[in-house]
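Please complete every field before forwarding. Incomplete forms are returned to the sender.

SECTION A: IDENTIFIERS
Entry label: holo-97
Bound molecule: zinc ion
Molecule representation: SMILES string

SECTION B: INPUTS
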Amino acid sequence: MAEIAPTPATIEINDGVFCTHFKEVCAECEFDGREENDAFYGFEFIDREGIEAPAGIVNKDGVYQCKKHSNAACTQCYGWKKQITRARAVAKKAGKK
Ligand SMILES: [Zn+2]
Ligand SMILES: [Zn+2]
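SECTION C: PREDICTED COMPLEX
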């Protein structure tokens, strides 16, 4: 791509990168954070389903935390590694490249 696309607004939740709609892959923003998130956890990128972040709120430090547990590093809501691992397993099973 020769044209420089405007960088979509992204947010970071517990080290995961999402668009402002709490999506890892968003058609609206033309955002795809899968590669970045995979790389963060040491995974090689494969075409997998994007993960979605449960709605969060910004705490007084400007950090997103889950609504349910008020935890910025919530392993239940924001356990990306687990979710990505699951998405990768599904993608592999489906025979996606
Ligand atoms: Zn979006
Ligand atoms: Zn939580």
